[in-house]
Design brief:
By secondary structure, the protein is mainly α. The chain has one domain (12-112). Helix content is 50%, strand content 12%. It has 5 helices and 3 strands; from the N terminus they run ααβββααα. The chain has helices at 12-24, 38-46, 71-82, 86-93, 99-112; strands at 50-54, 60-64, 67-69. Strands 1-2-3 form a 3-stranded antiparallel β-sheet. A hairpin with a 2-residue loop joins strand 2 and strand 3 (67-69).
Length: 113
């Protein structure tokens, strides 16, 4: 580990579940949009009351119960839920990641924690 030097054991089950959902539903994945990227999907799959809400204009936002999950909170919540350190989260949630990148990162984090 290099960034933050936090020794966490990644939530391997949720990492793999999120990756599998993205692979099975690529049309629902957009790594450049927080609510549809790896972070957003990990929240939607890992917290039962996190749902997407689409308003009359077609704008999609995440809600946890009745509370909106703001864009700047998605990465932090996902980092905690996935039990990643900051460096791992930055790498995994990068908007330039391809499906192959996500697969390699999940394998790395699931293997080394």
């Amino acid at each position: 580990m290099t960034y933050g030097e936090v020794d966490l054991m990644a939530n391997t089950e949720l990492l793999r579940k999120t990756l599998q959902h993205i692979k099975d539903n690529p049309e629902q994945w957009d790594q450049k949009r927080w609510h549809k990227d790896f972070a957003g999907w990990s929240l939607r799959l890992g917290i039962p009351d996190v749902k997407v809400n689409t308003d009359a204009d077609g704008i999609e936002t995440l809600y946890q119960g009745d509370d909106r999950v703001w864009i700047d909170d998605i990465a932090t919540k996902a980092e905690e839920l996935l039990q990643l350190d900051r460096g791992q989260a930055i790498r995994l949630f990068c908007g330039a990641n391809t499906m192959d990148d996500l697969s390699a990162l999940v394998d790395e984090f699931a293997t080394f924690g």
